[in-house]
Amino acid sequence: MESEFFGSPDQQAVLARGLALYDLLCDHPAMTYYGRGVGVLWGAPGALDLMARLATVQGVSNCSFIPDANVPALRADLEADGYSITHYAAWEGSADALTAADRILDAHAPAEDISVHVIDAKSPASHLQALADVSLEAGVLPVAGCILRGQRRPAVSVVALDGKGQGVSCAAAATYAHPDHPEYGKVAWWGMLATRPDRKGERLALILGAIALREMRRRHGIKRFFTGVTAGNAASEAVCRRSGFAPRGRSIISPVDPRVLRGGKLTK
Length: 268
Ligand SMILES: CC(C)(COP(=O)(O)OP(=O)(O)OC[C@H]1O[C@@H](n2cnc3c(N)ncnc32)[C@H](O)[C@@H]1OP(=O)(O)O)[C@@H](O)C(=O)NCCC(=O)NCCS
Description:
- There is one protein chain.
- It contains 8 helices and 10 strands.
- By secondary structure, it is an alpha+beta fold.
- It has a single domain (9-256), classed as Aminopeptidase, CATH 3.40.630.
- Helix 4 crosses helix 7 (204-220).
- The longest helix is centred in the first third of the chain and has 17 residues, at 9-25.
- The chain is globular and about 50 Å long.
- The protein starts with 8 loop residues before the first helix and ends in a 12-residue tail after the last strand.
């Protein structure tokens, strides 16, 4: 099945391999996917071997919900194998995040010139392009278009457009693990937050992030979320904290083959 992909040619190639592998591996109990590369869950039997092979095939992979204490050794092993590593703190949110979303949407609304669109299968390609423009300008790689459109997994993506139809902010969420997984089957990744520099500070990230959370609950019954935050991203930490998320001692590690992605990173 075809999908829309965004980003550099190298990024788009990685996204296409990720989607193809998801199609092959979606029944694997340890797999994770929300529209970039296929990754694995910490603690599943054989998960780290699977991640190494996924990184070889895709050029990227990830392992999530690693206890923070296990990160240094895992990181050292992967670096010894030649991978560039991005380390994200996993910020997690459940009832607090859903309560925060309701509070944010009661208290704040976008400026008059802005229209907010939840993307679906029938959304015009121009809405996805506008989302991709604002996301990529902020250094955030949009997930595969079929995920943005909610066609492959329970997912919600949101774009805010200005009066000229240009993207000013975006957010997204998607389920993550095998739907039958006892612990993570009803957990969703949340994020892809980006706001155009000239519209920062208007609480658009808070509003769009809250819409994504609320719609995941309303449409798909999802009540647990997580996101990855890199050390030093103060703006991201502020938005996550205000959105009811907090770090709970777990991490996400993403190995990238620097021969596949120059710069050694798939996304912020
Ligand atoms: C993170 C980002 C999306 C925030 O967008 P935004 O629309 O300006 O954020 P908001 O206006 O909704 O701000 C939400 C809260 O965060 C705070 N905040 C925003 N930027 C901040 C910063 N640089 N430092 C500290 N706090 C900050 C705001 O003050 C606000 O809190 P308040 O309501 O208590 O005043 C934007 O800075 C961005 O695009 N960054 C680059 C991409 C990125 O790193 N995305 C996150 C990774 S997925």
